[in-house]
Amino acid sequence: MNYVIQAGAFAVQSNAIRFTDRLRDRGLDAYYFIAEDKLYKVRFGNFPTREEALAEARNLVAGGFIEEYYLVQPEIRSPAEIPQHIPEIRRKLVRTAIRFLGCPYQYGGTSEDGFDCSGLTMTIYRLNGLNLPRVSRDQYQSGRSISRKKLQPGDLVFFRTNGDSTISHVGMYTGKGQFIHAPGRGKTVRLASLSDDFFKDRYAGARNYLE
Predict the structure, then answer these.
(1) Looking at 69-128, which runs of residues are DSSP E strands?
(2) Of residues 180, 181, 209, 210, which has the active-site annotation?
(3) Active-site residue, 103 included
(4) How far apart are CA 188 and CA 103, in angstroms?
(5) What is the value of pTM for the model shown?
(6) Which of 11, 127, 177, 196 is the most buried (most CB within 10 A)?
(7) For the sheet containing 178-181, what is the strand order?
């Protein structure tokens, strides 16, 4: 991920939701998240240059869609270019994921208001400056295939839960045989074990996006 625009920070979650929905109605891929300072922050975009991000932000200000904003550039644009940072990126991915424990499942969801499985993994990565495809099948096609024995925190694990050969579920490995995922309707984001019979029988593989 390159430059993103942050256009709001709210103490009240409902305000962040309304603002995010307004940006989405304009066709922007907006999302909100609760930051470590406990504010709900709204971001959108993935611009290859600062100039493009700045031009879009100014257009939105002129149109009355946003007021204050600032541009965010992840500290590391391509982790593979700086291998010594990868262990810290993995720790950050896990810390981000843990913040979402207990959030409700929502089909198509990509925020604390509700996640589906691939929306959760995409958001975890995106909040750490890394872009992933939106759906689990496409996420499975990206990255480098790794064996279960070589799993590291931050890698994604995939499952075939529909009784056929299609990839239908994804979670993020957190270490010690566990992964975090958004299980399904009526449930919340939680930790699960790869050794659980249900997941063991449906395990399809894992992907590394950092090395």
Answers:
(1) 70-72, 110-111, 114-115
(2) 181
(3) no
(4) 5
(5) 0.76
(6) 127
(7) 144-146, 203-208, 156-159, 169-175, 178-181, 190-193
Question: In terms of residue numbers, what domain contains 116?
Answer: 80-208
Sheet strands (E) in the chain: 3-10, 31-34, 40-47, 70-72, 110-111, 114-115, 144-146, 156-159, 169-175, 178-181, 190-193, 203-208
Using left for φ > 0, alpha for ψ between -120 and 50, and beta otherwise, residue 129 falls in: left
134-191 confidence digits (pLDDT tens): 899 999 998 899 999 999 999 999 999 998 999 999 999 999 999 999 999 999 999 9
Active-site entry in 169, 179, 180, 194? 169
Joined together, the tokens standing for residue 197 give: 């019979």
Clarify whether residues 95 and 18 are in a common domain.
Answer: no
pLDDT of residue 1: 56
Could you give the percent of the chain with pLDDT greater than 70?
94
- How far is it, in rounded angstroms, from Cα 69 to Cα 30? 14
Q: Which of these three, 25, 48, 72, is where a domain ends? A: 72
Q: Are residues 31 and 112 in the same domain?
A: no
Write out the two tokens for 98. Answer: 């843990």
Query: Which residue out of 5, 93, 117, 180 is catalytically annotated?
Result: 117
Contact 23, 110 (CB under 8 A): no
Residue 96 sits in the same domain as residue 148: yes
DSSP SS3 for 119: helix
